[in-house]
Amino acid sequence: MTEQERTGVFRLGAPPLRDVRDVLAYVYAALAEKGYNPVDQIVGYLLSGDPTYITSHRDARTVIRQVDRLALLEELVRTYVQERLHP
């Protein structure tokens, strides 16, 4: 197969993240990079469901919408309880 016959694969858009922790970490980092307070922005999104709380930088808005908000809340509470109340 010559170089001209090879098919190139290009990935466009948000990376497919499945793990809730990975999603939160990715979105947190994108918000911080843009100078936002990540905690305030994520809380705003979780409470309102309004995706405009999340920056589109690095496709963070698309990434966070890959996960149900309830799953995000469950992970946050589970992690808090495990790390703070039952270390």
Q: Which value, in Å, is the CA radius of gyration?
A: 17 Å
Report the count of strand segments: 0
Average pLDDT taken over every residue: 88
What amount of the residues lies in strands?
under 5%
Parts with pLDDT < 50 across at least 5 consecutive residues: none
The percentage helix is 40-55%
Q: What's the helix-strand series? A: HHHH
| Alpha plus pi helix count | 4
* C-alpha termini separation: 57 Å
| Most strands sheet | none
Q: Looking at the structure, what is the overall shape?
A: globular
Strand-pairing-aware structural class: mainly alpha
Describe this structure in words.
There is one protein chain. With 87 residues, the chain is an all-alpha fold. The protein is built from four helices and no strands. It has helices at residues 20-33, 38-48, 60-64, 69-85. The longest helix has 17 residues, at 69-85. The mean pLDDT is 88.
Condensed summary:
The chain has 87 residues and is mainly α. The chain has helices at 20-33, 38-48, 60-64, 69-85.
SSE layout and pairing:
Elements: H1 20-33, H2 38-48, H3 60-64, H4 69-85
Helix pairs in contact: 1-2
